[in-house]
Design goal:
The chain is an alpha+beta fold. The protein folds into 2 domains: 145 residues, Glutaredoxin, CATH 3.40.30.10; 155 residues, Up-down Bundle (Glutathione S-transferase Yfyf (Class Pi), Chain A, domain 2). The protein contains 10 helices and 6 strands. A 6-stranded mixed beta sheet has the order 4-3-2-1-5-6, sandwiched between helices.
C-alpha cells in the first residue's frame, strides 16, 4: 500500500534573503516616511506650518467680511485638525451659515480627494492650485474657502476655530456661547501651547518618529502631559475651570482617536484614555455635549488611519474592536459645578 506523501515543513527564508528583504523594506520605509512625515536630523517628526493665514474680519471693508453662505469648510472626517472646525461649527449652531465638503485620503492620488467631484475638481490639491496657481506646498485640511472670491481664506485649524467662535455670531444659533472669553485667554493659550506640542502633535511625533531616541522623547512628553491633565481635571470640569473653551475642543479631537488609533498604530501604548480616572469621564462629558457626537465617525477614523497610512500598516488591515458605545455612559462630572 502506498504511503501518503508528507508535505515539506515550511521553513524561514535563508538568512541572506531576510537581510536583503529587511534592507529593502527599511530603505523604502524611510523613503515613504520622508514624504509622509518630514524629519529633523535626530529622526523627529516636524510638522510643516500652514501657509494660508487670512481671516474673516468683522470690518465689512476688509476682504473677508462676515456673511452667511459665503464660506465653506473642506474637511476630512478622519482628520483631528479638521474635526476641531466641525465641533465648533456644531456648538455655535453655524450649520446653516457655513457649508461643508467632505474629502477622503487617497494614497494612490497622494493626498485628499473629493468624495464627489466639485466644480470639475477631483482632488484637494487642485483646489489649492485654483486658489494659488503654481502652489507646491502641502494640500491639507481643514480649508476655509471663500466661495465669492474662489480662494482659500485660511488652512490653520487653530485660527479657523477662533473665527467660528466670534466672527459669525449674527448668523449663529448660539451666539452667547463664547469658547474663547477674554478673561480666560491666557489660560486657554497656555494649555493650547502645551497640549499642541506634547499631545495633539505629540501622538504624531510618536507614530512618525524615525529613530528610537526621537520616539522615546515624544512618548515621554506625551504621557507626562496626559498625567498632568488628568490631575488638573480631578477638581474642575474642564481645562480652564468650569467653562468649556477652545482648549477642550482642541484636546478632544486627539482623545477621541487615542484608544482606537494612537494607542496601537502610533505606539502610544503606555495607557489608554479610558484607563485614566479623570480623562475618561472628561472625554465622555465632551462627547455628550449637544452636537458633538454627530461629528464623530470612528469607522471613518479607523479607515483613514489604518487603511491609508501604508508605511505604518502595510497590510491595510483595520481592527474591529473599538467603538464609541462606552462614551455614552454617565460621566458624573457635572458635580464639579456645571457653569456651561
Amino acid at each position: 500500500m502506498t504511503q501518503p506523501t508528507r508535505k515539506a515543513k515550511a521553513t524561514l527564508p535563508a538568512k541572506s534573503i531576510i537581510r536583503l528583504g529587511r534592507f529593502a523594506w527599511t530603505t523604502m520605509w524611510h523613503l515613504m516616511m520622508s514624504r509622509l512625515a518630514p524629519r529633523d536630523a535626530s529622526g523627529a517628526y516636524i510638522r510643516p506650518a500652514s501657509e494660508f493665514r487670512n481671516a474673516i474680519d468683522t470690518d465689512s471693508n476688509r476682504p473677508y467680511p462676515p456673511a452667511a453662505g459665503r464660506y465653506r469648510l473642506y474637511v476630512g472626517l478622519g482628520c483631528p485638525w479638521a474635526h476641531r472646525t466641525l465641533i465648533v461649527r456644531a456648538l455655535k449652531g453655524l450649520e446653516d451659515a457655513i457649508s461643508v465638503t467632505i474629502v477622503s485620503p487617497s494614497p494612490e492620488a497622494g493626498g485628499w480627494i473629493f468624495d464627489t467631484p466639485e466644480n470639475g475638481l477631483q482632488t484637494l490639491a487642485e483646489l489649492y492650485q485654483q486658489a494659488k496657481p503654481g502652489y507646491t506646498g502641502r494640500s491639507t485640511v481643514p480649508v476655509l474657502w471663500d466661495t465669492q472670491t474662489q480662494t482659500i481664506v485660511n488652512n490653520e485649524s487653530a485660527e479657523i476655530i477662533v473665527m467660528l467662535n466670534d466672527r459669525l455670531n449674527e448668523f449663529a444659533q448660539y451666539p452667547e456661547l463664547d469658547l474663547y472669553p477674554a478673561e480666560l485667554r491666557e489660560a486657554i493659550d497656555s494649555w493650547n501651547e502645551k497640549i499642541y506640542h506634547a499631545v495633539n502633535n505629540g501622538v504624531y511625533r510618536c507614530g512618525f518618529a524615525q529613530t528610537q531616541a526621537a520616539y522615546n522623547t515624544a512618548v515621554n512628553e506625551l504621557f507626562t502631559v496626559l498625567n498632568e491633565i488628568d490631575a488638573a481635571l480631578e477638581h474642575q470640569r474642564y481645562l480652564c475651570g468650569n467653562r468649556l473653551t477652545l482648549a477642550d475642543v482642541r484636546l478632544f479631537t486627539t482623545l477621541i482617536r487615542f484608544d482606537a488609533v494612537y494607542y496601537g498604530l502610533f505606539k502610544c501604548d503606555r495607557r489608554r484614555i479610558q484607563d485614566y480616572p479623570n480623562l475618561a469621564g472628561y472625554l465622555r462629558d465632551l462627547y455628550q455635549l449637544p452636537g458633538v457626537a454627530s461629528t464623530c465617525d470612528l469607522e471613518v477614523i479607523k479607515r483613514d488611519y489604518y487603511g491609508n497610512l501604508f508605511p505604518l500598516n502595510p497590510g491595510g488591515i483595520i481592527p474591529t474592536g473599538s467603538s464609541l458605545d462606552n462614551l455614552l455612559a454617565p460621566h458624573d462630572r457635572a458635580k464639579l459645578k456645571d457653569l456651561f
